[in-house]
Amino acid sequence: MTAHDPDDLEALRAKSDVLGLDALLSAEERAVRDRVRAFVDTEIRPYIAGWFDRGHFPAELAPAFGELGVLGMNLEGYGCPGRTAVEYGLAALELEAGDSGLRTFVSVQGSLAMGSIHRWGSEEQKQEWLPRMARGEVIGSFGLTEPTAGSDPSSMKTYAERDGDDWILTGEKRWIGLASIAQVTVVWAQTREGVRGFVVPTDSPGYEAVVLEPKGSMRASVQCELRFDGIRLPSSAVLPGAVGLRGPFSALNEARYGIVWGALGAARDSYEAALRYALARDQFDRPIAGFQLTQQKLVDMLLELQKGALLALHLGRMKDAGTLRPEQISLGKLNNVREAIAIAREARTILGGNGVLLEHSPIRHAANLESVRTYEGTDEVHTLILGQHITGMGAFR
C-alpha cells in the first residue's frame, strides 16, 4: 500500500475522522468552522512562531476578529453575532489550532468581559460597550483572580466602598488577560453587599496594569497584574444584575465551555504535525510512519481526539438545548485539556530533536496548554467539583 501524501492535509483529516464526526455537523456549522479555519491559515499560522518567540500579541488583529464574527460570538443583540454554542465551540477549536493565546483573546473578550456585561449589565452599559467590543474596536478584560485568591475567589481582598453616590475601588488582581491593552475591565470586588462587578475604564485615575513577563507559556498573549489605587467610580459603573459569586462564576463557565473545544484544536494541530512529519521523515530507509511504535503513538492520539470531539459536541448540543450543567463543563474541561497536553507532548516525540524548534507546533502547544490547564479552574478544582457532585460532600475546605 502506498503511503499517504503528507502534503494533502484535507485527505489526512478525512482519514483521521474515523468515526465520521463531520457528518454530525450541519452545513452551517461546517461553514462557520471552515471560515475560521481559513482565517487561522492566512492570518495566524504563518506568523505565530515569530509572535510566540518575541512574546508579541497581535492586538492589531482585533478588528479582523470582529469582522470574522467571533467576538461575543454566541451573544444576542447589541451587534453581537448570535451564533450557537456548537458554532462557537468549532470556532474556538480552529482558533486554538492556531494558538491558545489567540483563542484566549476571544474568550476573555467575549465570554468573560462581554458576557458579564451582556448578562448582568444595565441597558446603558450594554449599549455603550457591547457593539464596539463585538467589532473589535474596544478590547476588554476581566479582573477576578488575585495574588492570594486564585482557586478561591471568595477570599478576594479587592474592595469597593461607597462614598456618597460613588464607589472607591482599591486592591490588586493578577493573571488578568489583555489588561494592559484593554480600554475597559470588568472588575469583581468585595463590598458590604457581597461581591459586585464594576465596569472600569482603564484610563481611570488609579488604574495600573503591569505586564507579567518573561513567560514560558502563552507568549503570544498578554497577562497582567492590576493595581487599583482608590479608583473613583460612579454608581453607573456597577453591574446591577450581579450580587455574589454567581456573577463571575457564570462568566467562568462560559469560558470553560470554550476551553473544552479549544484544547482539541491545539491537540489536533499537534497530531497533524506529527502525522505529516512521520509520513515525510525517512529513517532506516523508510518513513517513520511505517514503524509500529510510531503508529501506536499516532493511534493513541487519534483515539483521544475522536473521544474528545464527541464529548465537546455532546456538551455543545446540551448547551444549545439549555440543559448543560456546571459539573458537565468541568468534566469536559478536565478531560480535554489533560488529554490535549498528553497529545502535544507525544507528538513532539515523533518529531525528535526537530520537535523543539518553533517551526513545528507541538512544543508551543504543549507549553501553552500548561496555562490552559491552570486558568478557569485547575485540574484539582474541576476534580473536586465532580467529586462533590458524585458524593454530595464538598472537599474544598
From TrEMBL:
Top-level taxon of origin: Bacteria
UniProt keywords, alphabetically: FAD, Flavoprotein, Oxidoreductase, Transit peptide
UniProt key word Phosphoprotein: no
Ranges for domain Acyl-CoA oxidase/dehydrogenase middle: 141-230
E.C. designation(s): 1.3.8.6
SUPFAM superfamilies noted in UniProt: Acyl-CoA dehydrogenase C-terminal domain-like, Acyl-CoA dehydrogenase NM domain-like
Coiled-coil blocks: none
Required cofactor(s): FAD
Pathway(s) served: Amino-acid metabolism; tryptophan metabolism; Amino-acid metabolism; lysine degradation
Keyword Oxidoreductase attributed: yes
Domain Acyl-CoA dehydrogenase/oxidase N-terminal: 26-137
Gene3D superfamilies xref list: Acyl-CoA dehydrogenase/oxidase, N-terminal domain, Butyryl-CoA Dehydrogenase, subunit A, domain 2, Butyryl-CoA Dehydrogenase, subunit A, domain 3
InterPro entries with a match to the protein in the record: Acyl-CoA_DH_CS, Acyl-CoA_Oxase/DH_mid-dom, Acyl-CoA_Oxase/DH_mid-dom_sf, AcylCo_DH-like_C, AcylCo_DH/oxidase_C, AcylCoA_DH/ox_N, AcylCoA_DH/ox_N_sf, AcylCoA_DH/oxidase_NM_dom_sf
Domain (Acyl-CoA dehydrogenase/oxidase C-terminal): residue spans on this chain: 249-390
Reactions performed catalytically: glutaryl-CoA + oxidized [electron-transfer flavoprotein] + 2 H(+) = (2E)-butenoyl-CoA + reduced [electron-transfer flavoprotein] + CO2
Catalytic class of the enzyme: oxidoreductase
PANTHER family in the cross-refs: GLUTARYL-COA DEHYDROGENASE, MITOCHONDRIAL
Family membership noted in the UniProt record: Belongs to the acyl-CoA dehydrogenase family.
Protein's UniProt name: glutaryl-CoA dehydrogenase (ETF)
